[in-house]
């Protein structure tokens, strides 16, 4: 097993270096700041719009690599992160009608707001970027800014959502969408990492709340993870209620594994592995062609999402992290076997042997459907985060093999 692990580490390390080099070379806007994300297979920028989710994610990823991995502690990475952070601080925030700060979803190349979403996710990735950037620059104002925006998010989610700008319509049923508590739990982990007990305790109750909200998505007597449930944790009617997103469930799984490790919660660890790692894999893996379906209907109806049977890059990234983290915490060999199965599919289908970076969108049969390397939703985040985390976990597995 040791030789197999070493071979995987070498491949993962090489892939990560290639991915980092691709974005360093092709994504930086040296005129207006920030990052291009709509990048073709050959590195050509095919659209200059800048997406705030992806701007924040790229700042976060650069900073995390710079802060925690010696080979990436390079001046050009730090300077790129700082330039991206400056672009975000200057242009991403737009004042809403309620007087609260809302972040745009999409900006022109020179920073003019194009679109604002009535969700919390642009703000989430703004917080991630500012907090991580504050850690590498020592800028306390950035850290304070991240914490202030976090308080606004908590208010929107738990007290009054009117600041998001969504009209209250009579037929619109309030839902617990798994993405919301997942992202808040991710932010709790981001803001508290290494900050000391005062900060940890500040977000302790919110972390517990997020975990309980995520666990509400275990439905059908523990046989399914559903993407949307009622505020009371009951199944919703129709397509929305039957929707399954295996990649999202797997990502929630490793978020819960991190939380359970931090707080020593063995019961939560078992639930995370059984219900949010192994169950979505069993339900979501295409037994004919391999790979994870993007969406499923729990009752077997055809999902209404047109791309439901495609194989996308990010669910496979989440599966790799989830199975490897589960193995590292339990040392159960079947979990490492699952990681290896996902690894073989992922590296043989998404990785581009002729160029750098990964393809993002495959047909059900595993053929490349869209050959660009970056777009409105695929940036410098899921692939490098996956490779970074897998490299670190495997290094730890080897170091503690006895």
From TrEMBL:
Gene3D superfamilies assigned to the protein according to its UniProt record, in alphabetical order: 1.50.10.10
Q: For this protein, what is any one GO molecular function term?
A: N-acylglucosamine 2-epimerase activity
Keywords, A to Z, come to: Isomerase
A Gene Ontology biological process in which this protein takes part is: N-acetylneuraminate catabolic process
Q: Which Pfam families match?
A: GlcNAc_2-epim
InterPro entries, per database record: 6-hairpin_glycosidase_sf, 6hp_glycosidase-like_sf, AGE/CE, AGE_dom
* Enzyme Commission no: 5.1.3.8
Q: Superkingdom, according to UniProt?
A: Eukaryota
- Carries keyword Isomerase? yes
* Enzyme type, top EC level: isomerase
Recorded metabolic or biological pathway in which this protein acts: Amino-sugar metabolism; N-acetylneuraminate degradation
Catalyzed chemical reaction(s): an N-acyl-D-glucosamine = an N-acyl-D-mannosamine
Matching PANTHER family, A to Z? N-ACYLGLUCOSAMINE-2-EPIMERASE
How does the record describe its quaternary structure? Answer: Homodimer. Forms a heterodimer with renin and inhibits its activity.
Q: Which family does it belong to?
A: Belongs to the N-acylglucosamine 2-epimerase family.
**Can you name this protein?**
N-acylglucosamine 2-epimerase
What is the scientific name of the source organism? Seriola lalandi dorsalis
């Amino acid at each position: 097993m040791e030789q197999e692990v070493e071979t995987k580490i070498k491949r993962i390390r090489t892939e990560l270096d290639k991915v980092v080099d691709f974005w360093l070379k092709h994504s930086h806007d040296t005129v207006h700041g920030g990052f291009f994300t709509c990048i073709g297979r050959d590195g050509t920028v095919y659209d200059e719009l800048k997406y705030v989710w992806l701007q924040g994610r790229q700042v976060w990823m650069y900073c995390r690599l710079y802060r925690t991995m010696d080979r990436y502690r390079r001046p050009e990475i730090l300077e790129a992160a700082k330039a991206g952070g400056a672009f975000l601080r200057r242009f991403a925030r737009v004042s809403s009608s309620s007087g609260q700060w809302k972040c745009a979803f999409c900006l022109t190349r020179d920073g003019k707001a194009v679109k604002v979403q009535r969700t919390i996710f642009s703000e989430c990735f703004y917080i991630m970027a500012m907090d991580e950037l504050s850690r590498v620059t020592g800028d306390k104002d950035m850290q304070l800014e991240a914490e202030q925006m976090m308080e606004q998010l908590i208010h929107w989610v738990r007290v009054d959502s009117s600041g998001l700008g969504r009209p209250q319509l009579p037929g619109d049923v309030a839902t617990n969408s798994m993405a919301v508590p997942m992202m808040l739990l991710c932010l709790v982990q981001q803001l508290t990492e290494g900050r000391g007990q005062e900060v940890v305790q500040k977000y302790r109750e919110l972390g517990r709340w997020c975990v309980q909200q995520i666990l509400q998505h275990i439905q059908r007597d523990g046989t399914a993870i559903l993407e949307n449930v009622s505020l009371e944790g009951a199944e919703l009617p129709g397509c929305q209620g039957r929707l399954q997103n295996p990649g999202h469930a797997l990502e929630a799984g490793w978020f819960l594994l991190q939380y359970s490790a931090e707080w020593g919660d063995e019961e939560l660890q078992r639930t995370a592995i059984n219900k949010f790692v192994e169950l979505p894999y069993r339900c979501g893996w295409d037994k004919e062609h391999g790979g994870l379906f993007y969406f499923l209907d729990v009752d077997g109806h055809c999902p209404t999402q047109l791309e439901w049977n495609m194989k996308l890059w990010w669910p496979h990234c989440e599966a790799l992290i989830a199975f490897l983290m589960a193995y590292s915490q339990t040392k159960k060999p079947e979990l490492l076997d699952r990681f290896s199965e996902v690894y073989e599919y992922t590296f043989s289908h998404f990785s581009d042997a002729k160029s750098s970076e990964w393809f993002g969108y495959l047909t059900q049969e595993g053929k490349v459907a869209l050959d660009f390397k970056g777009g409105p939703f695929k940036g410098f985040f899921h692939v490098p985060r996956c490779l970074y985390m897998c490299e670190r976990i495997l290094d730890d597995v080897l170091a503690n093999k006895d």
